[in-house]
User: Fold these one by one.
Assistant:
Number 1:
Amino acid sequence: MKAPDFAYMRPDSLDGVFAALAQYGDDARILAGGQTLMALQNMRLAAADVLVDINRVPDLPDIVEEPGHLLIGALVRYAALAESPLVQQHVPLLADAVPFVAHAAIRNRGTVGGSLALGDPAAEIPACMLALGAEVILSSAAGTRTIPMREFYLGLYETALRPDEVLTAVRVPKRRPGQFHAIDEIVRRRGDFALAGLAVSGVAEKGAVEAISLALFGVADRPVLATDAADLLIGKALDPAQIETAKDAVIASLDPPDDPITPPAYRRHIGGVLVQRLLGQIREKLA
Amino acid sequence: MTRAVKSVAIALKVNGENVNETVPVRRNLVDFLRADLGLTGSHVGCEHGVCGACTILVDGVIVRGCLMLAAQADGCEVETVEGADATGRIAKLQAAFHQRNALQCGFCTPAMLLTAAALLEANPAPTREEIRDQLSGNFCRCTGYQAIIDAVADAAEAGE
């Protein structure tokens, strides 16, 4: 189908975007990469009266190295994220996550900011940012605030973004010595939405887990941290018995939505499979 | 364009030629190419980014023509299968598709060619797995894909 009638504007500054949001409120939607919004418009599941295209707003950052962090601008496209030497060096989980995102043509256009602001529960980048302890930067005419990822998602496609705010960047901690990471997902077809996925980031010191985050996606109304499992792993070696305990804790913590094709028990099961698979991989790398 | 508009004048390059048109803002780029410019080699399938039949190049990279507005292509360089055919950029792939019978109805073929060409330009000797991965966003309802993978592998060997 074709999108319903709408008006289009392309502000040339963030102030222009703020003015548009002030003028049109809920009738406006921000158009970044468009890889979800355009599809929803075409299917008439979304019907914005005004699309505010931010693709040519010059004051959004690219990928910038800061002390301890990388600042990644909202308009950085998936393909650019994967190819960035800064990302490969300092936040390799993100580079490893990109091949799981949809298909090449989508990755050339879809953006980090769009993925984060939409908050699809099965999306890879939000889960990675959660595992990495990133913070999103939300800007409005009134100023800028920074929100930790773990406080950003409030429900299904619900975020802490206020109607007058734009997600302009995300600040991601750089890899520390001893840091490990892994990501995998289970899909029916390559590039499809994950039935369940897991992004892991942590730090090992002398064979023991010093810190670990396990962010699951596709299993709830938003990406979720398996904190019970993480608590069980801290201070321990990643041996098969510990991995089994963590897997059981993740399965016990999940309460997936009941969907006609994928029963909750199946999603819990494959969530556990992913925990076992990725912690096993990390164990081998650390050995 | 700091004001909300319903139609917009755009200037872009399509297959190397300058194009200046005024388009309704809700016109998708692929519809603009087909309906306004008569370049019907790019096909319209699902219109929500799943089937890949509308794949074109914008500023040198493959994108979904149904998930971009013509208005957004203002100032861009667009290449369609017609342009890629005219320059000979996909000639070896076209020959391999013919040789391997890698098409039946042909609906997915232009997008398959452009998607495969993007892979071979970045990675001249892909594995079959890498070919499958690259083509995973393009549906073919006729061939069962094997012949398409064979054709791309042949073209890689022939040095596309």
Number 2:
Amino acid sequence: MRSSDVLRFARDAAAGYPLRTSLSVLAMAIGVAAVVVLTALGDGARRYVVDQFSALGSNLVIVLPGRSATGGFSPANALTTTPRDLTVDDAFALTRLPSVRRAAPLAAGNSEISANGRLREVVVAGTASTYLDIRSFRMAQGSFLPEGDWSRGAPVAVIGSKIKEEIFGGSPAVGELVRLGDRRLRIVGVLRPVGQGLGMNTDEVVFVPAAVAQSLFNTNTLFRILIEARSRGEIEAVKREVTAVLKARHGGEEDITVITQDAVLATFDRLLRALTAAVAGIAAISLAVAGILVMNVMLVAVTQRTGEIGLLKALGARGATIRNAFMAEAAMLSLVGAFTGYGLGLFGAFVLRRLYPVFPAYPPDWAVIAALGTALTTGLLFGIMPARRAARLDPVQALMKH
Amino acid sequence: MALIELAGIERVFHLGDSAVHALTRLDVGIEAGEYVAIMGPSGSGKSTLLNLLGLLDRPDAGTYRLEGRDVTTLSADEQAAVRSRRIGFVFQSFHLVPRLTAAENIALPMMLAGMAAAERARRVATALKDFGLEQRADHRPDQLSGGQRQRVAIARATVMQPAVLLADEPTGNLDRATGDDVINLLEALNAHGMTLIVVTHDQKIGSRARRQLMMEDGELKFDSARPAAVAG
């Protein structure tokens, strides 16, 4: 029997039992659609998080005081127990490194802001003019902290949009005097709303020069140093150089931790990829179920068409011909089901994107390929048994069943 | 050389502990172009004999030579090839594939044999004309009368130009008049040289054959070609 005839015969056989065929196609389609939509959701979540992180600022490297992971025993570790603090001078030293485009100190603490007859608890961030560009913030009004000597801060402040809203309402804030702790500062700018980032809501932060913050909190340490590398490729160089410089400045002791945004991002990326894969795995169960359903449908088909199989044998069909015809039918059911499901899944992802425009719900390629592949494989695999059963039927017995 | 030579054929079915001898010590020869009726009560082994002749079943002992070739020792696939080219079947219940049209049903054995589509179409057209089914080519079996269905089945059985046509109660599901038409059709094919073997329990149809084989309890009780040899 020619292969084109096998295919046509299988197609006609499938079309001859529309209910049975459409049900198994539907089962397969739901399985594939589930994989496509669920992985689109998972991968959409991953992309969303990655995008959010990228919004933090590109090529960001963060220096923390203290060593998070020990490098084994060394005499230096044994002698000194408390790490040295990060200072504004440390931060300034880093700006001279060739791989560093910008660096900004960050001293943080809580204080109260009062102005316009209102009082509010705020997070105070002491930093420098470079911070704006490192974090890719935009100004709503006025300007950010002025450039100048980091160790001598001018009495100025920049406030987040929410603070502006709560203290000044609709009236202009730039140029107003506020009281921050025991200091009187002049507001020089208001940030545009940006939302959550680096563990604090920037809209509720008051930015002041680092020196002002340090004297406000009566300390000379920094909470973080933020660094922007010249390029993505130089992030590793920044890490190396920063560690070397600070080690030299801290008396040969490596008492800082350098983390990159890439590392944080990579962790989230891995996490969410694993989540997507897990979701895909759960959805794949529905594919296996669909495969078993195709097998059931084909077994019913063999029973239903026992007389026909006997006839085909009487007409000179070899066992292999009958097996191929039934395999082709199972493959067709799976194939049509898989592609219907793919279409449904794409449509589902499209609807999701329409409903939640910020959520990039596109199914990843690997998931689509895996779903289609699994559907076809299970369909064929589960088609083998019924097809073999058909091929092995005794023609005399089969002919009697009509 | 006889077309069909059966020598010492035995067929035993095992039902639980007991063995049922469906065919015992069967020796029959059938020449090309003969018109043979196999008759006998139900359970006499006539259907088993027909299945053996059609290579749908294998004997437990004995040899079956078709056109001089021992076909009992052939593999399943080789037997399928013999069925495809040398044997045509006509069944009591027609055995048409319900989803296929008359023309497609007739083309089925040629499709299974891997014949080219153009040759198939040519032969189907000829068969439809010969059997008076031109108007019914695109009808499905459920749109055909019983007589038309059996004519489609006969067209299908003969379209590969087999050496022998095996008919199992070909009129069993038909009324008397339609049954007579079908028998006339089969006899006309025989008149053109086709070897025809009909299994029937209908005396009237059986007596129309030129040779009768009477079966009883798995044994050949009477062969009209050799009245003396097998009696008893």
